[in-house]
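Technical note accompanying the year-one report. For the benefit of new consortium partners, we illustrate the data format agreed upon in the data management plan: each record pairs a sequence with a C-alpha cell string. No post-processing was applied to the example shown here.
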Amino acid sequence: MFEFQKASVSRHQARARVALSGPSGSGKTYTALKMAAGLGGSVAVIDTERGSAAKYAELFDFSVLELGSYSPLNYVKALRSAEKAGFETVVIDSLSHAWSGKGGALEMVDVAQRRYRGNTFAAWREVTPVHNALVDAILTSRCHVIATMRTKTEYVLQENRRGRMVPVKVGLAPIQRDGIEYEFDVVAHLDQEHTLRVSKTRCPWLDQCAVLEPDERVGQTIKAWLVGDAPPELPQASAAEVSARRRGGQTVH
C-alpha cells in the first residue's frame, strides 16, 4: 500500500553535496578546503591531482588518500573508508578523473568496446552502472561531500582596465558525465579571478551568489542551512565589481 506522509524539515540529519568547477588555476582545491573548514569537523581528501592538496597542509587540518587509478569503484571504496574512519567531510579532488582519467569511465568504455567488437551500446551498458554506483555513493554518504571538477577551457578576448583587449582563460562545461550537476545541493563555478558564482542551489542564501575569494563563510552558510541556524554575512560582489576585477581592478572584500 502506498501512503503519503506529512512533509517536514529534516535538514539537521542531512549532509551537504557540493560541486565546485573551474579551469586550472582558479583555486578549486584551496576553495574546497576553505569550504570544508567552514562545514566543520574532521576532513578527508581523496586526491587525484598528484599531491596538490598536500601543498596546503600547513594551512588546513586534513588527512589525504592519493588514488593511483581512477576507476569509479576506487572512489566508492575511498568514500566508504572515509565514512568508516569517522571523517565528517570528504573533499574529492577531482571528480573529473573518474570520468576521463586513467581507469576512469571513458577508458573503461574503450576497453569494453574492444571486447564487444566495437559495440558502443554494449560497452556503455557495462560501464554506466559502475559510474552510477559512484554517484549513489556520493548521495548516500554519511559525510559532507565537496567534489571539484575541471572544466574544458578556451581563451576569449576581453578588455582590461587600460582599454586593451587581452586573452583571458574561461571555463566551459565540467569534465564529467552530462547532467552530473543535478545531483548536488550546491553547484558553483570558479573563474581565474577566484570569483565563485553559484549557478544552482537548494540553499536560498546562496542563490545567484557571486563571492570574491570565497572563504570558510561559504561552508558555514551551507552548514547553517542544514541545521537551521542564521547564516553568516557573505562578501557578495555586484556585477560591476566582478567586471572591474576581470579588467584588473582592485579586489573587493
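Partners are asked to follow this layout when depositing records. The radius of gyration is 19 Å.
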